[in-house]
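#struct-pred
JK: can someone run the complex with zinc ion? inputs below
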Amino acid sequence: MKTAEQYWNPILETLPREQLQKLQLRKFQNVLKWAYENSKFYHKLYSDAGIEPGDIRTFDDIRKVPKVEKSMLRGIQGREPYPYGDILCVPLEQVTEYHQTSGTTGQPVFQADTWQDWEWCAESWAYILYAQGYRNHDRVFLPFGYHTAIAFWQAHYASEKIGCEVISGGVLNTEARILKMQELRATAMMATPTYVLGMADVAKRKLGIDPAKDLQIKKITVAGEPGGSIPATKKRMEEAWGAKVYDHIGATEIGAWSFECTYQSGLHVNDALFIVEIEDPDTGELITEPGRKGKMVITAFDRIAQPCIRFDSKDIIGWSPDECECGRTFRLIKGGVLGRADDITKVKGVLLAPTSIEEVVRSIPELGDEYEVLVTKKGDIDNITLKVELIPGQESNIDLVKTKLVDQLSLKTNLGYNIEFHKYNTLPRYDVKSKRFKDLRHKE
Ligand SMILES: [Zn+2]
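RT: done, structure tokens with the ligand placed:
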């Protein structure tokens, strides 16, 4: 039975779609007006396009508002008010939080937040954690130093807001973090999929600890990489830890816009705090039907220092045909972020999403968690090399594994690969975000 206790905000999370859309339109109008009146950057952007806030009267009008891209944010930062530039909507004195994007694709983008914004950030994460079953009896372990990255700071504050007890494992190394979790009987953890798998490996190999039996972690929230929505990777994490793994996607300049609930049917978009549009990357046409993929354009309604309005995220997503049984009216996307419009690269003329390679590698039990993909070019011909590791003891199965890999990869990606087997534990390991896909074609 559905009860109010299962939702962080029982009213907004179950609001009928029609009312939710009305709320979204009103909130969009508010943030647009705020940015137009308070940010020189947005004022110029909209004036140049001949748009005034009063022009946006219907849901469809939202699509007339110019989009913002990351390159535009990079272009203005470093100027006054330093370092954010004239996108800022509040006096610099009101800014209380500095964060930046991880910079995996170029110069990081700076993000300013006021204290009000920061409370909103914690609120948006509280939806996520509450939907994943976090309650005030949980002891949450965060096995990172969060530094200038935003997600785990938000997760930390949101855990406290819900009433959980929070342990920050920042300065410890991996072994010490595992021992701390064991000592304190931590019940929940948050990390990147790469680190969740890496920790389990270290626990077993170096400490003789089996996380599924010797630790009390019952739920793990993952973020920062697609793994939480790749079934084979999720299965590996859940088995290694004897815990439920829930995905979440957010971004520094956007906010925490989506989350998986305990029913694990896909990722809910937080429709109360954001509006997500999916559009065809070539034609710009709005996609509303399930199953068709496009790139995400997103607006955060309540962030005031550095608003995010129709941000062209380049993330490729698609609406789910399924409904979640949790009772939320928040829409679902299927498969998480399927790639980025930038890095769904064409190899041999075929579109290749790195997530499909991960799904294949991680679904083969004889292979270790790590892999690496190199795309190179000889003359006019693209070559893909996939490096994998066999789990110790599986050496005699090498031919069988190779056949499985080649067949599955050809089925899922329509491409041929050179497969290289490497000794277990010799491919690079990553602590936070992995760089397993390397396109070297333009560097030769
Ligand atoms: Zn749900």
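RT: quick notes.
The mean pLDDT is 93.
Residues 345-443 form a domain with the GMP Synthetase; Chain A, domain 3 fold (CATH 3.30.300.30).
JK: thanks, will look after standup
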